[in-house]
Amino acid sequence: MKNIKYLIGLFLTLTFIVSCEDDDYKFGDIVTPSNVQVTAEIVGQDLSDPELLYGDGAGFVTFEATADNVISYSFNFGDGYVEVAPSGKITHRYTKVGVNTFTVIVSAIGTGGVSSTTSIDVEVYSSFTDVEAEDLLSGGIIGEGKTWYWAADLPLHVGMGPVSDDYGSLDFAWPNWWNAIQPWDDEKGCMYTNEFVFTKTENGITFEQTTGPAFIPGTYAGILGVDGDTCHDETVATTMFGVKNVSMFPSSSKAALEGLYYDETPYRQTAFEISDGGFMGWYVGSSTYDIITITEDYLQVRIEEAGGGAAWYQLFTSTKPVQDEGFTELAWADEFDTDGAPDATKWTYDLGAGGWGNNEAQTYTDDAANVIIADGVLKITAKAEGDSYTSARLKTQGLYSFTYGRVDVRAKLPSVAGTWPAIWMLGDSFDSVGWPKSGEIDIMEQTGADKNTVGATCHWFDEVNSVAANYGLTTSVANASTEFHVYSLEWTEESIKVFVDDVKYYEMTNSEALPFNADFFLILNVAMGGSLGGDIDPAFTEDYMEVDYVRVYQ
Fold first, then answer.
1. Is 440 one of the catalytic residues?
2. Are 521 and 425 in contact (CB under 8 A)?
3. Which end of the chain, N or C, is surrounded by fewer C-beta atoms within 10 Å?
4. Which domains does the chain carry?
5. Residues 445, 463, 494, 546: which is the catalytic one?
6. pLDDT tens digit string along 289-322?
7. 227, 213 contact by CB (below 8 A)
């Protein structure tokens, strides 16, 4: 194991001189660039050698553009990449394997943004291929895509080291400046929702960051003039979203070619670049990644910060990590594996009409027509009965209650307007102190009018102001009525968190002043109409919520 070295006394000073004199900011005459010309030199080309007619296989082409009355040049290389080169000279690497022709469009940009264009065709040979890495990155099936996430549940999912040995350290290929990050680092928590999708297409690989934000480290934040070591949205990281192209090519960095990673692992010596300024969550002004290692499950990369300030090491996983709050012991469960009525040792019922304080239209029963277990699922059915409605409300009151833990409920929700399904909890003190003093935790509610959204809410009594209080949030679940999803609660002395399919969308701070520090019992029901059910479809006959399992961990 290498000894961890510390970087001491590295100070970078950036001085800006601003003139306060009156200046004339007029552009002057706007003149369109003219006489635009461009030449292309294919690196390694030898027209006298049949094997080098289109270059040496590296894919490099050097372009040089000239024009009159020009300020800068923009190059569209014809492979999905666009770059700006004020000098008019630029080298680009084509990575599509084989001999391919690309039409390159060059725009000469003049004062006021006016431009003139020309184009040139280049036929170039690229021989590099790493099919295994491409397939591992994208899943290998055209059109399906593979999603990567931060490996937040593992140590060292982010690290930092020098770009080279310029600072006297020979350990330039591993994070020897900073390698102490632990799983679920609080400072980095804002980025753990990131999702990165690589998709194989007929023409190569595309990349899309589908969930933000972007984390900007302090070393790069000063260049942007924003706060560092925190997350920012697309107004700062303007290239974060959108479908982009991915190029694969041989690594050229000293770290990849000469170095070993922290655990003596050699680099794969394959690199990839994301077009249009794309990046994988960590925004440092660069889009080129050296692959250290890649498997079906993990991707380990190195990226050099623009300007050469630091090299960043990042670890991603293809399985979304779930933060473990320590709830690993299964304390109670119902898998609904036995056909017939629900287990009477686990469930009892609320029965009767009256609306339960929410102007609901149903009467709750324990009839098999309204509540039954069949084919491994519990089905709670709301039915039209002439001008009225029946349904069921199950609860564990008097049979099972608990304080703190994780609840997982896998369920498929009704689809018809007017149905109001809920997965929720009430405090054991409900019978003695009433609602809302008992406290209520709604793990999942779906309104009767919006079947593409679910919500989570906590209710309590505000003793200071003597009013009922609540805090709720919603999230989109477009297929909640056609597919099963896992609705989860993580409840501790410090917080109440709610998830859909392990994606957290709700969090509230718990405290001694709130009623959420005592035993609560579970409730499953489908109401009709009322404050959240709303207007019932006049053509309604029946609809149901299916529950695959209920599990409580502590």
1. yes
2. yes
3. N
4. 34-126 (2.60.40.10), 131-317 (no CATH), 330-553 (2.60.120.200)
5. 445
6. 999 999 999 999 999 999 888 999 999 999 988 7
7. no
